[in-house]
Amino acid sequence: MVVTDGDPDENAGAWWRSAAIYQVYVRSFADGDGDGIGDIAGVRAHLGYVRDLGADAIWLNPWYVSPQADAGYDVADYRDIDPVFGTLADAEALLTAAHELGIRVIVDIVPNHCSDQHPWFRAALAAGPGSPERARFVFRRGRGVDGAEAPNNWLSNFAGSSWTRVTEADGSPGEWYLHQFAPEQPDFNWGNPDVHAEFEAVLRFWLDRGVDGFRIDVAHGLVKAAGLPDAGPDDRRGWMPFEDQDGVHDIWREWRRITDSYLGERVLVGEVWVPEPERFSRYLRRDELHSAFNFDFLRSPWGAKPMRAVINETLATHALVGAPATWVLSNHDVPRHVTRYGRVDTSFEFGHSQLGVPTNRELGTRRARAAALVTLALPGGVYVYQGDELGLWEVEDIPDELRQDPMWERSGHLDGVRDGCRVPMPWSGDEPPFGFSPDASARPWLPQPADWKGFTVAAQVGREASMLSLYRDALRQRRTTRGLGDGPMAWLPSDPDVLAFTRGDEFACAVNMSDGPVALPAHDEVLLASGPLDAGLLPADTAVWLRTAG
Ligand code: TEU
User: Fold this and answer.
1) 32 C-alpha vs ligand 1 centroid, how far in Å?
2) Coil, strand, or helix at residue 362?
3) pLDDT at site 550
C-alpha cells in the first residue's frame, strides 16, 4: 500500500482500522515442549482456538533471543528466536500456519533499548569512552567528585536511577549508561545513524518473513531532550525530558516509509503512554504510526461520566488525524480488569499498586462482561489480552520467591503489578497445569490458582453463560453486524449513569453504570446481553447490544 498525500480515504476499509487483535503472551499461552514455559509450538497448536474466538490478528510479545531479565523485553538478537520459545524455523512455520487460517500476525519490536548481552553493548563496554561503539548508547561521565554521581536525576520505570556506572577495562570506575528500564536494558542512542540503519534492517528481516506489523515498545521514549537535563519536580506525570520528545516523530516517519514499501497493509502499532490526548494523536498522523493503544480507557475508573469523557476525547483527538481509535481493557503490564473493576478504586495508574486491596470478584466479573460489549462496540479496533475471554483475574498470592518481574525486586516489593496478569492460561483439566503443558507433572513458570478449574477453556466452551461464549458471540456479531468496527457513533439520550450509543442506523449499545435497573433504549431485538435482563430492564453493571429499527 502506498500512501498518497491529501487523500483522506486512502486507508478506508483497511483491516487494521476495525481489527480485533488477540494478544498472545507467548511465555504464558501454551507450552509445547513441557518445560513449563509457553512457546511457539504451543501457539501454533492453539491457532484454531484463536480462529474460533473470532480474532483477526494476534500480537505476539517478544520472542527474540534474550537473557529474559524483563521477560524478553531485553533483546540480545533481534533476528533470531530465543531457544526457550523455539527456532526461527518455528516462527516462520507459525506465520504460515496463521496466514492459512486467515489470522494476521503482529510481532513486538523493542527499539528503545536492548539487552546488556547484545553484541553492540558488550562491544561498547569493551571499547571504552569516546568510542563509536559507545556512541550507539547513552554513555556520560558522572557528576560530582570523581564522577561518582549519576549524570542527571532521571528515574527508571522500574524504580531507582536510570543510570548505572560501568567499570572500565583498567578496573577504574568509569562512565554511566542510561537505562529507562532495568540496568540489563541499556537505551539506544537514536541520534546515532547506526541505530537507524540497524532497525531498518531488522524491520525488513521480519517484513520479508511475512509479519503483518509491529507493536512498538515504548514508542514515546526513544528520543531524549538535548543535553539530558534534569527532570522537573512533577517526575513521572506529565511531560518529561525522556518521553514524547518531538524528534521521535521523525523515526516513525522513517518506519512508515518502510512498511508502506511492502505489499499487504503492514502496520505499525505504538505503545504510547503520553498524558495529553492531543500529543498522543501526533503519533497517528498520516505518515507516522497506523494506530496506538488507547490507554486512557484502560486507566479510567468504571463509571459513565469518566468513560463518556474518555470516549469523547479519544474520538475527537483521533479525528484530528484521521486515525481509528483502539480499545484495550488489560495487557501484560497491568492488573487484570476483573480484579480492578471489583475494587472501590477502579482506576489504574502506574506506581499506584493496589496489590492486596480487597476486590469483589463477582462484581468485577459482571463489569468485565459489560466492558467487553462496550469496547467491542466502540468505533475502531480492539485488543483482547489472552485470558480476558476466560474472565481470569489478577493472581495476587504468588509467593514472593516465585515472582519474576524485575519491578518487584527493584521497587523493594512495593510494586507487584505485572506477575499476576501473566500467569499461564488454563486450557483443560481439574488441576494445574490445566493443559498448559503437555505433561501433567510440568510446573508452569508462575503458579496457577487451583480455582481456575472452573475457568479453563474446556470448562467454558459451549456453556452459554461463560465469558468465553460471550466473547465468541460478540466477536462473531462484530464481524457480521453492519455499523460495528471503524465508522461513526452517536450518543443516545440517557440517564447520566448510562452510556448508550448507536453505530449506524441498525445497532445500539447500552451499559448501565448506575445502582439500579434502567429502561432499555428503543429496539427491535436484543442481540446480546452481558447478563440477565430484569423484567425487560437493564440491571446495574450490565450491557446490551440491540438491533434498532432499520
Ligand atoms: O512497557 C512500557 C512501560 O511500562 C512504560 O512505557 C511506562 O508504562 C510508561 O513510561 C509510564 O511511566 C513496555 C512493555 O509493555 C513492558 O512489558 C516492558 O517491561 C517495558 O516496555 C520495557 O521494555
Assistant:
1) 28
2) helix
3) 63
Among the atoms of ligand 1, which is closest to the Cα of residue 220? Answer: 6
Q: Assess whether pLDDT exceeds 90 at residue 194.
A: yes
Preceding amide of 399 cis, omega within 30: no
Sign of CA dihedral 403, 407, 411, 414: negative
How high is the pLDDT of residue 5?
37
Catalytic residue ranges = 217, 271
Atom of ligand 1 lying closest to residue 418 CA: 17
* CB-based pocket (< 6 A), ligand 1: 70, 73, 110, 157, 181, 217-218, 236, 271, 273, 332-333, 350
Give me the percent of the chain exceeding a pLDDT of 90.
91
What letter represents residue 110's amino acid?
V
Q: What span, in angstroms and rounded, lies between the C-alpha atoms of 225 and 247?
A: 9
Per-residue pLDDT, 9: 63
Instruction: Kindly report the protein residue whose alpha carbon is nearest to atom 1 of ligand 1.
Output: 218
- Picking from 499, 497, 290, the residue whose alpha carbon sits closest to that of residue 375 is 499
Nearest to 543 by CA among 337, 524, 521, 296: 521
Strand 173-178 and strand 104-109: the pairing is unpaired
The phi and psi torsions of 484 (rounded to 5 degrees) equal: -85, 170
What are the pLDDT digits (tens) for 498-527?
999 999 999 999 999 999 999 999 999 999
Q: In terms of CATH, what superfamily is 487-547?
A: Golgi alpha-mannosidase II (2.60.40.1180)
Contact 426, 435 (CB under 8 A): yes
Provide φ and ψ at 150, rounded to 5°.
-55, 150
Task: For residue 35, count other CB atoms closer than 10 A to its CB.
Answer: 15
C-alpha 471/C-alpha 457 separation (Å) is: 12
b/e map 86-113, b = 16+ CB within 10 Å: beeebbeebbebbeeeebbbbbbbbbbb
**Has domain 119-178 been given CATH number 3.40.1280.10?**
no
Q: Could you tell which of 181, 224, 334 is best to mutate to test the pocket of ligand 1, judged by most ligand atoms within 8 Å of the CB?
A: 181
271 within 8 A of 219, measured Cβ to Cβ: yes
Which residue, by CA, sits nearest to atom 5 of ligand 1? 218
Amino acid 485 reads G
The Å distance, Cα 280 to ligand 1 centre, comes to 16
Q: Confirm or reject CATH 3.20.20.60 for domain 2-113+193-460, answering yes or no.
A: no
- The CA-to-CA distance between both ends of the chain, in Å, stands at 35
Structural domain boundaries in the chain: 2-113+193-460, 119-178, 487-547
Contact 511, 375 (CB under 8 A): no
pTM strictly above 0.90:
yes
Å from CA of 109 to ligand 1 middle: 12
